[in-house]
Each structure stands twice: as C-alpha cells, then as structure tokens.
Specification:
Elements (H helix, E strand, L loop, with lengths): L1 H10 L5 H10 L17 E12 L6 E8 L4 E7 L6 E6 L4 E3 L9 E5 L2 E6 L11 E4 L7 E7 L5 E13 L9 H8 L38 E8 L8 E12 L20 E6 L6 E4 L12 E4 L2 E9 L5 E5 L14 E4 L6 E4 L12 E5 L2 E4 L5 E2 L13 E5 L5 E5 L12 E5 L2 E5 L18 E5 L8 E7 L8 E14 L2 E4 L14 E5 L6 E5 L11 E4 L2 E4 L18 E4 L19 H6 L6 H6 L1 H10 L9 E3 L11
Parallel strand pairs: 6-17
Antiparallel strand pairs: 1-10, 2-9, 3-8, 3-10, 4-5, 4-9, 6-7, 7-8, 11-12, 12-13, 14-16, 15-18, 16-17, 19-21, 20-23, 21-22, 24-26, 25-27, 28-29, 29-30, 29-31, 32-34, 32-36, 33-35
Helix pairs in contact: 1-2
C-alpha cells in the first residue's frame, strides 16, 4: 500500500509530489498512518544470521546428521561447496523423511513441508561443477534435521539461515497535521478481493483515487485509460499455474480496446501475473535414483524411493511445487519396484601359482614356501587387499626332514711334548659335525667330547733347592691352539755353587707356572680322521675303517688338502691265524646256534651255555669295543700311527 501511494502520488497527482516523499519516509506502512485501525507504530524484528560449514576427511558410508535447524528459521540456504557423489537429506524432528530418505534419492524439485517450500536442486552431473543445494524462504514450523548421505571422502557442506532474536517497538509517531490527515483520507480503503502484498489493488482493476479536499472540484475523467485487455496462456495444463495480465488502452465507459496512442502520454502499467487454475494434475509415481550397490563385487542390492505425488503449482521459472499424497491414490497394481539386485564386478579370488618348494634343510626342521596371488575376474594379478585376507592360503610352513646324524671329529695328536724333560702334554682339536656339513655347538653331538690334551714324558729333569724356571719351551702344536711349558728346578746355592736338590725340598715355596696356551699360526686346511672301527675279524685277517675329511680353520669342508698325504681310511687287522677251540665242554647243543649269534642273544647266560662254541667264536671276532666316530686332526708332516 505504501509503495502504491507513493507511486500514485508521483504519477497521477503531480501537484502533491513535494508532499509524497516525506509521507513515504515518515510512514513506512499504511497501518502506521493516522486514522488507521491500529494507530501504533509497527513492531520491528531483529534477526541473527547463522552460518556454518561441515567438513570431514572420512566417514562411514551412510546417513550422518550434520545440523539441526530450529523452528522459526527463515532464508534457509544449504549448498555443497564441492561437487561429489554424496547427497543431502532432510528429516523432520519426528523422523519423517522429506528429501532423500530411506536410501532412496529423489528427483530435484519443490517439496512442501514444515510450513514452507523447499527447493531441491542437483546440477547436471557432467557439465556442472556445483554441488547439490536446498533453499527455503521459511519460516519453519518445526525443527529440521539436515543429513549427509556419505559415499565419497572429504565432504563439505555450507548452510546458513536467519532466526529472529527480539522484537523492537518504536516510539509512537507525533500526530500529523490536518493537511496530511486529509491527504491520507483520499486513499480508498481496502476492498474484498484485493491481493495482499500488491498494494491493495485487485489484479483486474485500475487504481482510482479522489481529489484532495483543498484542490477544488475534481478534473474531468479522461475518455480513454489503460485497462486489462486479456491474459497469456496458463503456464500449465493442470494444477495451479501462472499467466500474465495484458494491459491496453480502453474506452473508459465501455471498456472497449482502442488505439494505445489515445492513452498517451500516461505510462502503460506493467503487466501483472496471476494464478490460473485448470483441472487438477493426475497423481504419479515419483521414482528416486538407485542407491549405491551394497557390495563392491559379487551380488548385492540397491534401493530407491518410490513416492506417490501430485503437482499443485507450476512456477514461471520452470520449477514445480509437488505434494506427497497417499500411495493408494496411485494404485497398488503397478507399483514400481524399490529394491533390485546389482553386481559391479566379479570378486577377486586367491590362486596358488606354484607347488611347495624343497625344504630349506636336508635334515632337521626347516621351512618351505609357495606363491599365492590375488587374481581379478579378468585374470590379472591385483593387490592382496582386493581379496579376502582371512581366506588366503598359507605361503610358508615348517618341514621336518628327520633327525640329523652328528659325529665327533678330532685331529691327530701333536708329536711334540710340551716339556723338554719330565711330564708334559700333547694336544689335538675336536669338532662336532653333522652329515650335511653344518657346524653345530659342541654339545649337540652324541656322547662325550673326546679329550683334547694327553700327558707325555720327555725324561727326568734335575732340580735345585730354590725354584728356578727355564725359558718357555716350543709350542706343542705347529698350528692352531697348543700348549708350551718350561722347566722348573730346585737349586741349592752354596757360596755361588748351584747344586740341584730334590724338588720336595722346595715344596714350601710357591711353585711357578709350568704351562701356558700358545698359538703360532692358523693351520689352514688339513686332514681330519675319526677313530678306527672294530676289526671285522678276530683272526685270519680282517679290516677296519675310519672317516677322513679335509677341513679348513673354520671347520668347513675344503678341497685344499694335499691328496698325496691323504690318511688311509681302511687297513687290515688281526692277521694271526685262528686257533681251534680245544675245550671239550664248550659245545653247541643246538643246530641253529648261528641264529642265536645273529640275534645277539649270547649276552644271556642260557644261550651262552646252549651255544657255547658259537658265542665264544663271536666274542673273539668282536672282542674290541665299539669305537665312536671321533674325528682327529692329522698333520701333513707327521706320521700317523694306526694304534694311536
């Protein structure tokens, strides 16, 4: 009304132009003018604008509430700041879905809910770079919950709205002068049929106003004036649409259209829009977009929302106001499906490419392996994460190749005694080896460790009354670890004469050290042998054997030994002829005593008596005790005696 008063005074009552401006400034609305039913000044609302941005790097797939917009909010604007495969969703405080509920994606459009119109936009997925948006003028009649349907990392949503915080009541305006009071009274009161917000004018009427009482008689009415002559076609064929009222020059009395030139120079009023109602639009099924498949590979399911709706308004900008109606209005015979099967691709699977490899050790416990890869539906090798790790076949396992044979190996005794006179020591080395030539700790071999030091006597020594030590003797081993000794005597010093006396006379004195370890050099490669086995016969000539190996300083096999001095691994033994038994009381009482000997039953007294002759011959044949496999070091420059 205020705007029309101002425009009418500026356009039709040119004589009051100077009074119209202060009137529009002093009285912001018709209700504030004197003479109105409410003489008080209008209340002013103060609004607070709330602006927020929601962003997260990662979320779980599904619905996530990001905001709760209170009732009374106005000018609601929600916008995805980054285009993504995520969706916006709205739900009332009571849990009723408004947009994109129940894993079903709605089509863009206008939705009526919570006392306002919600405009949902989703730009073209190919050409546009903008994300989804929802706007509403408000005010909301109840709280609104804003959700994000998360499907892509790093979502970002900006939203803002305004909400009234307080109401301000301005002080009353001073009473206007009678002149202004008379001017206001010339405006006709509101009549039934006027459209609120259009200045109190009916969409099909021309504004009329009376003369000011101080201006004298009114001027004669013009013969022609601008008036409605028709309207455009309705914007829709069903529901409520919009059309434009067309203005033209008409005869004032008959309202018959005449030439527009007859109404000039008065300006043509702007065309006005009005609602046009045709037949109601039929109901239809509104199909939402299919949701993401529930599985990345293999058979899954997807859902969509199917809602029965009706278009009520078609707006000039191409948008529609759609309301949800009962599903029964669309019928139950041809309801579109809301759940369907889907499969993006065939799941990857594990494939065993190779058989188990040989065991890593020839004896004992080792490991073996095989190749297992993840293969896609096209046969290509993919990352292991594409397959189910819980179902992956094993690629490594233990293998037991049985117990390892272990033997003691010793070198030959050194030929030199550690003492030049008296008792001394000779040494040798002892090592533990298994059948695949892997060095083990010394305690891993079976049986006791062979001795590595033995005593030797280099002849008597002369002593003195007091202890006298000679120089250290030569090392007992030409290479490797050995022992060296020195001479100690007890001398009797009488006027410079040194007489050697019995060492017992020096027993009260602390005896000096007689031996110490020595190491001249590394031996390098050399031959090692075991002890001789038992002779195969006790008489008439037999043979015995031993193992011979070439080893380096770190006790590993080597090919560097001199083949010309290789120790013998077999020799003859017990060459003396056998003497026949002459004891008449030692006879076999059974004809099958040979079986008793083979079964080793001669250890029992009964069988020794029943098969006396056979058991006696067997005991002489194997009279030497069984010798364990002790390995001894030999030296290329020493002579090895078989009896050592």
């Amino acid at each position: 009304m205020r705007q029309q008063l101002c425009s009418l005074w500026r356009g039709g009552v040119l004589g009051l132009l100077q009074l119209s401006l202060p009137l529009c400034l002093l009285y912001p609305s018709l209700s504030a003018l004197p003479g109105h039913t409410d003489a008080r000044a209008p209340s002013l609302e103060v609004y607070e604008v709330v602006k927020r941005t929601f962003s997260r790097p990662f979320l779980s797939v599904g619905y996530h509430q990001i905001a709760e917009i209170p009732a009374g909010a106005q000018n609601l604007s929600i916008q995805e700041t980054i285009k993504s495969r995520n969706y916006l969703a709205l739900r009332t405080q009571s849990g009723v879905s408004v947009i994109n509920g129940n894993w079903a994606i709605d089509r863009p459009g206008v939705f009526v809910a919570m006392g306002t119109q919600l405009t949902y936009r989703r730009p073209n997925e190919i050409r546009s770079r903008s994300g989804e948006s929802i706007t509403a003028p408000g005010p909301l009649t109840e709280d609104l919950h804003l959700f994000l349907i998360y499907q892509q990392p790093s979502p970002s949503v900006y939203y803002e709205y305004s909400i009234p915080t307080q109401i301000v009541h301005p002080s009353p305006e001073p009473e206007t002068t009678p002149y202004i009071q008379s001017l206001v009274e010339t405006v006709e009161p509101d009549r039934p049929g006027e459209v609120p917000g259009d200045g109190g004018l009916n969409s099909n009427e021309i504004p009329r106003y009376g003369p000011h009482p101080n201006q004298g008689p009114p001027e004669p009415r013009p013969a022609n004036s601008w008036g409605p002559t028709g309207h455009t076609t309705c914007s829709t064929t069903c529901g409520t649409g919009r059309r434009q009222v067309l203005w033209g020059c008409v005869d004032t009395e008959s309202q018959i259209p005449v030439s527009d030139d007859l109404c000039e120079p008065a300006p043509r009023p702007p065309d006005q829009g009005e609602d046009c109602v045709t037949q109601p639009c039929p109901v239809h099924w509104d199909l939402g977009e299919w949701s993401e498949c529930t599985r990345r590979c293999g058979p899954g399911t997807q859902q969509r929302q199917v809602i029965c709706r009706r278009v009520t308004h078609v707006h000039g900008n191409g948008t529609e106001t759609v309301v949800t109606v009962a599903s029964e209005m669309c019928g139950t015979a041809d309801v579109p499906i809301t759940k369907s099967t889907c499969q993006l691709k065939i799941c990857s699977h594990w494939q065993i490419r190779t058989d188990w490899s040989p065991c890593s050790v020839p004896c004992g416990v080792g490991q073996r392996s095989r190749e297992v890869v993840c293969v896609g539906d096209q046969g290509d090798v993919e990352e292991d994460g594409e397959c189910n790790m819980a179902m992956k076949p094993g690629t490594l396992e233990n293998c037991d190749m049985g117990p390892c044979a272990r033997s003691w190996f010793t070198s030959l005794w050194s030929q030199r005694c550690s003492a030049e006179c008296g008792e001394g020591h000779r040494t040798r080395a002892a090592v533990c080896l298994i059948d695949h030539v892997t060095r083990l700790p010394l305690e891993s071999c079976e049986g006791n460790r062979p001795p590595e030091v033995t005593s030797c006597d280099s002849g008597p020594c002369h002593g003195r009354l007091e202890w006298y030590t000679g120089p250290w003797g030569q090392c007992s081993a030409e290479c490797g670890n050995g022992t060296q000794t020195r001479s100690v005597v007890c001398l009797l010093n009488t006027n410079g004469t040194m007489d050697i006396v019995d060492q017992m006379k020096c027993s009260r004195l602390l005896p000096p050290t007689l031996s110490q370890p020595c190491h001249l050099r590394m031996c390098g490669v050399q031959w090692y042998v075991t002890d001789w086995s038992a002779c195969s016969r006790s008489c008439d000539g037999g043979y015995r054997v031993r193992e011979v190996r070439c080893l380096a300083d770190n006790i590993v096999p080597s090919d560097g030994c001199d083949p010309g001095v290789t120790p013998e691994s077999r020799e003859e033994c017990n060459a003396e002829p056998c003497v026949a038994e002459t004891d008449p009381s030692c006879q076999d009482q059974y004809h099958n005593c040979a079986v008793v000997v083979q079964a080793r039953l001669c250890v029992y007294p009964y069988y020794r008596t029943a098969c006396c002759a056979s058991c006696t011959r067997a005991s002489k044949t194997y009279s030497d005790p069984y010798l364990k496999n002790h390995l001894y070091r030999t030296s290329p420059w020493t002579h090895h005696s078989p009896n050592e």
